[in-house]
Amino acid sequence: MIRDICVGTPGSAHDAAVFAASDLYRHTERHPQATTDVERVQVPLLVAGDPAYPLLPWLIKGYSGPNVSQEQAAFISHLNGSRVKVEHTFGRLKGRWRILAKRSDIHHSFMSTVVAACCVLHNICEMEKQRFVPPSEDSCNEGERQPRRLQCDERPPQAVLIRDTLMQYVSNLERQ
């Protein structure tokens, strides 16, 4: 199920810029979330992001760089596992509504309405447990991919502490 959407920016917009303009970002930045204690660090409900997103106290992303430790690599693996459902949701959304998987001739001023409608229809299909048949590989125009993502290097200290604490927590669980 898709719980929150932010439509209206062009496909060439950087993910982090779209995120920073979203209601989810503005709301979560203004309204602190409930926390739970992990290894004596207060950890809020987290959004899992990929490397394109900034590391924030409530938005967790993996470690990057050439010198990732074994513990950090294990944490990245766990984090990526939690993001798989999101990737599958996007795959199913684009698989159901092929207009989202390719360049469209629809006027750009109407495209955000099309995207929002596809998200609503996707949720209805999911609620009704409609069978999903993945499209064949050659039915998608692979030549029109989104631009490469840029990496965001800003790291607030509280976000670093939360990520490091969670990485240590996951590492301790694996040793048991």
Brief summary of the model shown:
The protein is built from 5 helices and 4 strands; from the N terminus they run H-H-E-E-E-E-H-H-H.
Keyword list:
about 180 residues; mainly alpha; two-stranded parallel ribbon; 4 strands
Q: Can you tell me about this structure?
A:
It is a single chain. The chain is mainly α and about 180 residues long. It has one domain (about 15-165). The chain is built from five helices and four strands, in the order H-H-E-E-E-E-H-H-H. It has helices at about 15-20, 25-30, 70-95, 110-125, 155-175; strands at about 35-40, 40-45, 45-50, 60. The strands form two sheets. A two-stranded antiparallel ribbon has the order 1-2. A hairpin with a 2-residue loop joins strand 1 (about 35-40) and strand 2 (about 40-45). Residues about 140-150 have low confidence and may be disordered.
Strand count, sense and barrel status of the largest sheet are: 2 strands, antiparallel
The residue fraction in helices comes out at 40-55%
Number of strands: 4
Uncertain runs are: 140-150
Strands of the largest sheet, in order across it? Answer: 1-2
| Elements, N to C (H/E) | HHEEEEHHH
Question: Helical element count?
Answer: 5
**What is the strand content?**
5-15%
Give the termini distance in whole angstroms: 34 Å
